[in-house]
Design goal:
The chain has 180 residues and is mainly alpha-helical. Helices cover 45% and strands 8% of the residues. α1 packs antiparallel against α2.
Length: 180
């Protein structure tokens, strides 16, 4: 093999390596983004922040980057932790109680409309837009949208929001409809 042939071979291999690196650099972010989407789809979308992240998508991103563990989502429970373990090829583990617990049928927020001053602080705090109302008017919770995250409780200045079991709200609504 001549020096020229060896030089051409080295140049060709270098060009091939550079092309492979460019392709990988372009493909890796797209692949990571697809994985983030897949992880996000497994999460319950309560946006409660109990996992210590600002919502489900940031938690999904941290999971894919290896910056969070699969057991930080109490609303998703054991089923979600196991699904995340399978998808991310990690060992399954129970939900860590440090992040809280959520009952099988989480309660929903209920606003005592007679005590509500219409400050809108609960509306601003609700990550899933389950609270409706206008400034200086009473607010109410759309129970079917409420995830039970309790983020509306702390900002209420008059403590007119309480968590109630889902069934009692449905029963009360059914009775009210029957009586009207």
């Amino acid at each position: 093999m001549t020096i020229a042939t060896a030089l051409l071979l080295v140049l060709a291999l270098t060009a091939l390596a550079l092309a492979a690196m460019r392709w990988a650099a372009h493909e890796a972010p797209a692949s990571a983004e697809r994985m983030i989407e897949r992880v996000n789809e497994l999460l319950p979308q309560t946006q409660c922040g109990r996992c210590t992240f600002a919502g489900c998508r940031p938690y999904a991103t941290a999971l894919v980057r290896g910056e969070a563990d699969i057991n930080q989502c109490p609303p998703g429970g054991q089923r979600t932790a196991e699904a995340l373990a399978r998808l991310l090829n990690r060992p399954a583990k129970p939900v860590d109680p440090r992040f809280g617990s959520v009952p099988d049928d989480p309660p929903v927020a209920w606003i005592d409309e007679s005590a509500c001053i219409g400050c809108t602080k609960c509306i601003q705090a609700c990550p899933v837009d389950a609270i409706v109302g206008a400034s200086r008017s009473m607010h109410t919770v759309i129970a079917s949208h409420c995830t039970g995250c309790e983020l509306c409780l702390p900002p209420c200045p008059v403590d007119c929001i309480v968590m109630r079991p889902r069934d009692s709200l449905a029963d009360r609504a059914r009775i009210a409809l029957a009586m009207s």
